[in-house]
Structures are given as structure tokens and as C-alpha cells.
């Protein structure tokens, strides 16, 4: 049995990835290490608690002693680093926690894995750094698509800390031949997402017949990808990606927050009039859309879920899991 260490696995994407991966790959054991912040939920794994192929460790990836202990004890063949302080809005007021998790935490994982994997020259090992499209910044130009070669240009402390982590990972691949790959995805939606995020907020407010607030300057155009399409992309990168490379993950489902809110309301048979525009309308429109040609062409990946289908599945999950 091969072993995979997932960090931040009790969060939104990590929870979906673990459940999907274990269902599709019977010859793996997964160790889920999570600090259990506000966006994490161990209830996502209640049905896996007795599984011999799933183990949970509570703790921070910035804890050097704990990370060394986990890697030494479980001897993972692969590591996927989902660990993240996911609410970028909170970062403006408290950036230190984000730097500790994204930069120091990533450094701790890299150094520990380098030490233990280096004993056999990284044979059979892979380290996947799950990053974000936000490291590219944004553009008002509707013709610009960010590729992996686009210079990073973070415009807030959250994206700066993620960019710093990416640079660390890239440097380990270059300096040590460390078997690392970076993925940068557009915004993801789906089951298990914390209600503080845009899509679940829209769904819950719509189900409760409450207004949906959208910022005036939210063309804020971006792509949206269903979480299982994101998970499949990560698996393709894990098994077939090239060490030292960056892979963008995008869907082509490009729309503003306002249009996303309208689509959710229409799927629920609710009127668009429940959308409230708030904030400063004088701010410039922003756009962050990725070019994922490398992933699609080199690793034979593409999305399978139309946005309406993904949203229907997501809405159904929130209807059936109101206690979450």
C-alpha cells in the first residue's frame, strides 16, 4: 500500500479530494493532517473514521517536530499541501497567521520531506503544492489569460504569502532536484465548502429567502470550477505531471459574481430581485482568468461538469446538510 500525506485535508477541497481519491484508488492509505481552523470540519469524514486506509493527525504544518514525526512514522510516498488560511478577507487585518501557514508551514514540509525522501534520492516521491490563481493578480483587460509563464503579481497579503510559498517550492525543485509540482486553480465550488464563501452564501441565503449581497465593483470576473473537476486535475498532475512544473487549472466558466448569483437563484426558481448591490461602484472592474492549455494538452485533462450540473449537485448537498 502506498501512503499519501494530505495537509489541510479537513477543509473544502481537501475533504472532497480525500473522499474521491480513496474511492478511486484502493491501494492507498491517506494520512490527513489538519490544524482544524474555522473552515475545517471532521464531520466530513465520519464514515471513514474506522477505515484502515484513513488516519487523522491534528496539528499545524508549521510545527517542525510534529511534521517530522508524521513523515517519519507514516513514510508517505506523496504529499499534497492543501493547508491554507482560506479567507483572504481576514488576511488584511491579520496577515501574520497567513505568512506562518503559507510560508513557514510550506518551508517546514519541504525541509522535512527533503530530509527523509533524500535518503533514497526522492525515488517514487511527489510533492504537490496547491496554490491559487490570485498569485497572478488581476487585469482590466478582457483579452488577457494568465499562463504559467506570466510573472506573478500578488496585490494583497494573502496572495503574496501564497506566491512566496510557490517560490519556495520552485526553489527546492531547482536547487535539490526535489520532486515538487505547483498547481494554480481558478475559484472552486462544491459540497463541504464553508458558508463564508461566495457560492454557499448565495445558496443558503436563497434557500432562506434572504437577500444576496454583491459588491458594486463585482464584475470581478473570474472562472469557476466544480470541485470534482479540480480533484481529477490534481490526480493527473500527481501521477503524470513533470517535476518542477506549474500547471494552471481552469474551467472556461467565466462570469461575474452578479451573474453567478443570478444563475444560483434561477436554478432554485428564485427572482433576481433578491440581489442587493453594495459598496463602491467607482472601483475598476477586475478579471483573473487562466490559460490551462498545458494541463489539457500535456496531461489529457478537461472538465466534465457543466456549471449548471455542478451547481445543482452543490445546492442539493446544502439542502441535505443544513446542520453543517
Automatic annotation (TrEMBL):
It comes from the Bacteria. Residues 5-314 form the NAD(P)-binding domain. This is NAD-dependent epimerase/dehydratase family protein. It comes from Acetivibrio mesophilus. The lineage of its organism: Bacteria, Bacillati, Bacillota, Clostridia, Eubacteriales.
